[in-house]
Amino acid sequence: MEKGRIVILGAGESGVGAAILAQKQGFDVFVSDFGPIAERYKAVLVEKGLSFEEKQHSPTLILNASEVIKSPGIPDTVPIVKQLKAKGIAVISEIEFAKRYTHAKTVCITGSNGKTTTTMLTYHILKKAGLNVGLAGNIGNSFALQVATEEFDWYVLEISSFMLDDMYDFKADVAVLLNITPDHLDRYEYKLANYAASKMRITRNQGPEDCFIYCADDEETAKAMKHTKIQSRRYPFSIRKKIEEGAYLEGNNIHININQEDQLTMSISELALQGKHNIYNSMASGIVAKVLDIRNATIRESMGDIKNIEHRLEHVARISGVEYINDSKATNVNSTWYALESVNTEVILIMGGVDKGNDYDMLRDLVKEKVKAIVCLGKNNKRIHEAFEHDVEVIVNTFSAHEAVQVAYHLAKKGDTVLLSPACASFDLFKNYEDRGNQFKMAVKEL
């Protein structure tokens, strides 16, 4: 039986995964990428006999689709998407499509900051507890590919606002919203309320049997919740106040209480992931684990032995008493704020790249307090100079990771920290934030 034509826009991890699943489900599949397709993805498409085009979107091959799966990186404003919507053709995300073909339950984690760490930690706890669990979304292998090739009972999914925008019937069994801070506002008409509404879609379709875990200390989340009808059970977490059902910090101890008889208490000194932001991330993961009835001993052990993720406050080396930290994953101002907040020494800050309409004001106090020099790494550093010229004595422009590290090395004194935390996207000088982080690490190792 012919199921109809599925067109996939974007041939990256999510697009190729969606193509494989759609093919397996018996659809007529066509993949279209406006840019060149990476060799490793092209090889998969060829091997599977999937038809595709690159460096163009041909309307004649796309506008005859019964449904379109769009890569999260493609905005709704591109001409082909506008044409599809004008014709009334449904445009959905890979996550929406994949969920139709699995009975697995999902833990979905979103937020402006901390979602990768929280996703990794949650996955680590569930795996350690012996659950048959997959890891997907913004991280690892595509969800659709795993639905096509694996048989998991649970998935931990890292979900971005772009993915949420194209989700309609999808439901998270356990939804986590860590925080809402200005990010990607270029995609939301520069309105924080639009971005917040997008994040709240994580609770869409949830019923009383589902859970919504959120940060009680986050003002924007509180505002957004007032405008959202939430039907699931709510479990807040806070480091400022006592929470009856959820998690909170008291002194140096985290308390997680979902059912009163079996409360988990853990000292923050036992956490493998240190820093204030990681207390939040650990509380969120801990609530997920308790909701799934995972033993306290397993939760405690997992939170104590997880390894930090690459490119997120990753220790690279200590050279002549100077600490080098790779936080290349900090592609927005708020992430850089977290990074500065977690460092307790004087800092040589390497920042810059493609500015997404950044407001650097929130960094000002921390920069005054901790940063003695800024090394700009980007093609256009004008806005960084304008933002910090009165707060920092030295601001230097560099145009490669090697040059940035050399300059930082000469500016740093024993006891300082050289921190790569760009607050910007990487596409001006690098392939992506991983490439930027790897080049930084290589340059440090050459010192």
Describe the protein:
The chain has helices at 13-24, 39-47, 59-62, 79-86, 94-99, 115-128, 143-149, 161-165, 192-200, 219-226, 276-291, 296-305, 333-342, 364-370, 382-388, 401-411, 433-445; strands spanning 5-9, 28-33, 51-54, 67-70, 90-92, 105-110, 133-137, 154-158, 174-177, 211-215, 233-238, 246-250, 253-257, 264-267, 314-319, 322-326, 347-351, 371-377, 394-398, 417-420. By secondary structure, the chain is α/β, with parallel strands linked by helices. It folds into three domains: 5-92, NAD(P)-binding Rossmann-like Domain (Rossmann fold), CATH 3.40.50; 96-305, 3-Layer(aba) Sandwich (UDP-N-acetylmuramoyl-L-alanine:D-glutamate ligase); 314-445, Protein-Tyrosine Phosphatase, Chain A, CATH 3.90.190. The strands form three sheets. It has a nine-stranded mixed sheet, with helices on one face. Strand 15 (314-319) and strand 16 (322-326) form a beta hairpin. Helix 16 packs across helix 17 (433-445). The longest helix has 16 residues, at 276-291. The protein is globular, with a radius of gyration of 22 Å.
